TrEMBL record:
This is Prephenate dehydratase. The keyword Lyase applies. The lineage of its organism: Bacteria, Pseudomonadati, Pseudomonadota, Gammaproteobacteria, Enterobacterales. Residues 5-159 form the Prephenate dehydratase domain. Transmembrane segments: none annotated. Signal peptide: none annotated. It comes from Providencia heimbachae ATCC 35613. Keywords: Lyase. Its EC number is 4.2.1.51. GO terms for molecular function: prephenate dehydratase activity. GO terms for biological process: L-phenylalanine biosynthetic process.
Amino acid sequence: MFTIHTLGPKDTNCEKAAHYWLEQKKLHGDIILHETLEAAVEKIKGDNNCILLGCIVYPYLHNIVFKNLNLLKLTDCFVMDTHNMLFASRFTDLKKINKVGSHPAPKDLISQVNNLNLNIESILFNSNSESALQCANGTVDACITTLKAANNNGLTILHDFGPVPMGFSIHTKIN
């Protein structure tokens, strides 16, 4: 069985991209979601019929490429719209927001939210979906996340940035 290893948990843009890539290539396969792409690379070492799907804005994707030249090679790239990117919260009142969670890649979207306290604390998580989960669990008051993750975690949408045209990379295992 063919497997795509990519960033999780459920509802990440990478998971959406994996489904999209399979559909475009008319392939069937499993998608395995990992806490980080670095963790995905470790799992790939023991899996022979698999690929790694990465996002071109993933922090340190260059390290994954250059540290694994004997394991993986870049074989494909494509552009796809992400899920709508959002500023979401458990609260509706911006004054109650003191901590905002985000994946490192879209964290600059925080500064685009009007009337937000300028002294908020920013906490980084491994994915947009993880940010939504941590917001729902009370670790942070608000988050930058995807529409799908916000809905699945019962968060209130305070600002919708819309979808973002994004690049994704396919890395094939060298046999």
